[in-house]
Amino acid sequence: MLGLAQARFLYAFLNRGEAHPAPSQHHTFGPLTLRLKLPGTNAGIPEPLCSIGEPGRASLIFIRLLKGSRAKVGVEFWGNELSEGDVFQLPAADAEIEVTCYVPAFFPSADDPVWGATPAGRKNQLVREYRILVDGIERLHGSTPYVEPEGSPLYIGANPLGGSFVSNLFTGKVLAVKRAR
Fold first, then answer.
1. DSSP string for residues in 127-176
2. Is residue 148 part of a domain?
3. What gap in Å lies between CA 46 and CA 49, rounded to an integer?
4. What separation, in Å, do the N-terminal and C-terminal C-alpha atoms of the chain show?
5. Is 6 contained in some domain?
6. CA–CA separation, 107 vs 115, rounded Å?
7. Rounded to whole angstroms, what are the CA distances from 104 to 49, 56, 110, 124, 173?
């Protein structure tokens, strides 16, 4: 009985990322902003900030904490490409930072009426590109190799999906999560 309880605790601990409904399910869309408390370590491994999708078709946004209070952010598009930004300085290894993520899964399809009067060029940009900002400074930007399907689950601070590069858990603390709309 004790062994079963320990196994359940370990499973819950390792899989503590929280699933959130996809933006299109509740007409919530826009960039995802995370307020983070960094762990103060510098293992250099890519730690998940958020994972969107399902095994085999997912976008995994990560941070890599480096020696000397430095970091890089990146995105892995499962089976397609991996992009990492340049190294940047952090205020401290255990600092609080704000990361804002733009990926197509956070926006409705370009033909969704929820866009209203948004110019076509802006809609197309948001559904075809990714951007990651740290404390308001763009650290990574590029074109996406595919668009996440509507209804893709979103996991904060965890990667329960697998993939080839990003670890399973952010070792810092997610202090706040907000969406633009």
1. TTEEEEEETTEEEEEEE-SS-PPTT--EEESB-TT--SSS-SB-SSEEEE
2. yes
3. 9
4. 46
5. no
6. 9
7. 16, 17, 10, 10, 25
CATH number for the domain spanning 69: value is 2.60.120.200
Q: What pLDDT is recorded for position 24?
A: 38
Task: Tell me the pTM.
Answer: 0.82
Token readout for 94 is 């255990």
Q: Is 134 part of a structural domain of the chain? A: yes
Residue 146 in tokens: 């595919």
Lowest-confidence pick of 84-88, 139-143, 163-167: 163-167
Instruction: Quote the CA–CA distance of 71 and 124 in Å, as a whole number.
Output: 30
> What integer is the mean pLDDT of 16-41?
70
Q: How many domains does the chain have?
A: 1
Beta pairing, strands 173-179 & 32-37? antiparallel
52 closest CA partner among 80, 30, 75: 75
Q: Determine, yes or no, domain membership for 48.
A: yes
| Lowest-pLDDT choice from 67-71, 90-94, 122-126 | 122-126
What pLDDT is stored for residue 181 in this prediction?
A: 64
Domain that holds residue 130: 18-179
